[in-house]
Structure formats: structure tokens, C-alpha cells
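Suppose you are handed only these lines of text.
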Amino acid sequence: FWIHLSQKPRRDAVKNINGPYNIPLLGALQESYGLTPENIFDKSFEMGLKYGLVLKAWIFNRLIIASGDAELNEQLLSSTVQIRKHTLYSILHEWLGNGLLTSDGHKWYTRRRVITPAFHFKILEEFVEVFNRNSKTLVNCLATKADGKSAFDVYPFVCAHTLDIIAETAMGTKVNAQTGGTKQYTNAVLEMTKTVAWRFLRIHLHSDFLFSVLHPFKKRQSEKNLKIMHDFTHKVIKERRDALEASLKSANGDVATKKRMALLDVLLQSTIDGEPLTDEDIREEVDTFMFEGHDTTATSMACSLYILARHPRVQDKLLAEINQVYGEDFSKPITLQSLNDLKYMECVIKESLRKFPPVPLIARNLTEDFKYTHSILGDGVIPAGSEFIVIVFGMGYDPQAFDNPLNFIPERHENLDLKSSFQFIPFSAGPRNCIGQKFAMYEMKVTLIHVIRSFELLPLGEAFVPELGIVLRSVTGMQLGLRKRTI
Ligand code: HEM
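From them, the structure of the protein bound to protoporphyrin IX containing FE can be written out as follows.
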């Protein structure tokens, strides 16, 4: 009774927000019962129709606000105060430490300032060669599947490809995931990514204690993988630091002018409050890039290929644009400038991100009262301590923003007339938006150029069945078929 009474001020504060019936003390358990990673998408749409784009739910003493409403989300995501990530992210801590993705407060702010120059266009320009070379390897790997009649899951192929790219660009090291190279490290990254996604879907396993007790074998395996990954990253950092110091001591000095800079090199040369970053600081950030920079992009790319396979008209138009920009004989080199000329491809990628957002949810813990002004809800306050979930996947299907949202229509992005840019946020928005957004777009463009020029994508295999993870998954994989093009 006392708990129920103590909730009253918080209940009163969110009276203007609809939501399912709450059983005193227990909350809306009847709604969460039977919710699975696969049915959560349909259930969310049902609840949106019933309660509107913003809804509240209590689970015991926790107040959860879920919002697919751009007006409210804009105010939350633009805030420089409400930047604390949800406790759901805690399962990433043992791997990523307190890096850019998971930190907040002063630490996040200073790190963001130091890391931003690592994504400067001059550095991205140098990465085009890495994207290009690895895309050619991807094409060679995919050629083994191009019999024109068999369906296969394209995700593992693009995942190894994005892992190769991020290792080379973040650490300056080749791990050859596509060709079976540095197996111990790449297997550890891939297994760890799977374990994190698996734990994410099982709320009780967010507790490290329960994870150790209920799944001791998985826990041991996970510790082994962590050690392999951390040892590897530390070794690479040490080697790059030694090389940097040696080159700075040498007469004609600076590595940056001679060799391609990896993101790691930018961190090695940075200071915070006059102090260089320690190896552990850098390790957190490099591991953050390794995680955040490969799985998101792999999902996005695999989904683009999946949906293109089912839209031959769009494929033809894309191929025509590629030929127009690079010549039928592919004589023009791929540069950042020429990638910017691929306007239709940009629309294709955006449309795929709308239909299949790789990060389906963004979740925050509110550290202070969140005051908002809203055209329907009026002025209000969501109390500190509440949890706020931005339903990114729902926003892409809002018919107010996107006509015929179920259809795949890249052309809609040519003249998209949104009331606010916050209506379309696959890379989030505001101060905690994705720092790797441009990197990802260029990487995806180079990959698509090579795959589309080499193969006709065929609508074979099972349909996509979405499954919620930290990153979007499909229960059936991302299936398609391939036929070699004769150029
Ligand atoms: C299609 C590919 C990608 C998508 C859809 C994507 C999406 C996102 C989203 C939605 C966030 C915000 C997460 C949150 O607030 O909880 C985010 C943050 C972040 N992303 Fe990406 N991302 C992609 C690729 C990349 C790449 C390639 C890198 C690195 C090379 C990267 C690095 C990061 C980092 C470090 C953050 C945390 C930024 C901060 O909190 O200041 N991402 N990304």
C-alpha cells in the first residue's frame, strides 16, 4: 500500500498519457505477458492504434514511456541533459567499458569532442580504398553462391565484410574475417555479439549473477572471448603507439603524412585536459567501434540486398545510375565526391533504413524531470527516474510522415517533405546521434556498387521475420539468390 501511495505523484504527473490498465503494484503485467522478440513489432503497432503514439506502462515500480511521436522524441533527443543510456546497455559494459556508446556526463562529452575529428571527411576519403578492396573480396565470396537458383542467408557474408572493414579502419589491422584469417579474434567478436543479443532478449540475464548461475558454460565462454578481444586490442594499441613514438622521434617524422590514419591513431594523438588518453581509454573506444561499427552496418546492408532482390525495377535503376557515374567499363575511380553523386542509391539505402531500422529502439533513463510542450498532450513533465523508449521502427511506418509506409519506394526520399527531421531517425538525432553515420553511408554505397554490378539479386528464399535485438535481426535470416551479370 505504501509503495502504491508513494507512486501517486508520478502517476499524477503522467495522467495525460494513455496506456494499458495497471494492476495496483504489479502494473501492466497482462500486456507484457506473452511479449516475445518476434511479436513485439506487431504488438507495438496494435498498442499504438489503441493508445496513440505515446503510451505509458508501469512494471512494478518502473514507469516506462514508449514514444513513436516525433514531436516528443525531438525534445528528448535534443536535450543535452537527458543523455544517460538505459540500464539495458549494462550488458555491454564488460566488453566496451565506459566508451562513447555507454558513457554519459563529462566523460561522454569530452570523449565525443576528441573522437569527432576521427570521422573528418579527409580521413573518410582514405577509407574508400579499404571499402573498395574489401567489397571486391565480398564479391568473390558471394560468387560461390551465384548459381541463379539457390536461396541463402546473405547476412553472415556481409557481417564478415563489415568486420574486416571496421578492424582495418578502426585499428589499422587486417583480420581477414571473409577469408578465414585471424580466426580466434574474429570468432570471439562474432560470438560475443551473438551472446550480447541473446542476453538482451532475456531480461533476467541482464543480471551478471543470474547469467553466471543459470548459464555457467556460456558465462565461461564469454569470459574467454572477452580476454581474447581485450588482449588483441591492447596488443594492437601498443604496436601502434610504439610505431607512432618511433616515427615522431625519427628525423622526418609524422606517421600521419606517410600512412593511412586509423581511428585509433587519432585517439593516440589526442589529449583530454592536456593528458593523453591511456591505453585502457583507447581500448574502450576501439572496442566500441568494433561492436557498433560492424553489426549495425551488416544488418543495414543485408536488409538492403534482401529488399532489392524483391524489387527488380529498383535494381535496374540503381545499376543504370552506377553505370552513369562510373562508366560501363568502370573507368572512373570511386572517390567520396563520386559517391556523393549516387543520389538514387542514397534514396535506396534510406528507404531500406526506414523499413528495416538496424537500431529499432533507443532507450534512456531520465536523470532529471523531463519537461515538454506538446500539441496534443499539452505541457507536461515525465518524472526523473522514468524510462523513455524511442520506438524508431514505429516512426518509419507513421502514415502521417510516409504515404503507403508498407511499400518500398526509394523515390519518396527525393523530395521528402517532413514536418521535422526527427520523423526519420535511423541514426538517432541530437547530441547523441550516430558518430559513424557518414562512415556507414559511404561504406554501404561502395559495397552496393560492387554487388549490384556483379550480380542480379533474385527474390528467392523465405521472407524476413523481424526479431528485436540490440540490432534488428530476422528469424529466417536475410535470404535471396544471386545470378552473375555478364558485363
Ligand atoms: C547503418 C549503420 C548504423 C546505424 C543504423 C547506426 C545507428 C546508431 C544509433 C541509432 C545510435 C544511437 C544509439 C543510442 O542512442 O542508443 C548510434 C550511436 C553510435 N554509433 Fe552508430 N550506427 C551505424 C553505424 C555506425 C558505425 C559504422 C560506427 C563507427 C564506425 C558507429 C558508431 C557509433 C557510436 C560510437 C555511437 C555512440 C555515439 C554517442 O553516444 O555519442 N555507428 N548509432
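What can we learn from it? Residues 303 and 478 are 7 Å apart (CA to CA). Residues 85, 100-101, 112, 288-289, 292-293, 296-297, 300, 358-359, 362, 426-428, 432, 434-436, 439-440 surround protoporphyrin IX containing FE (CB under 6 Å).
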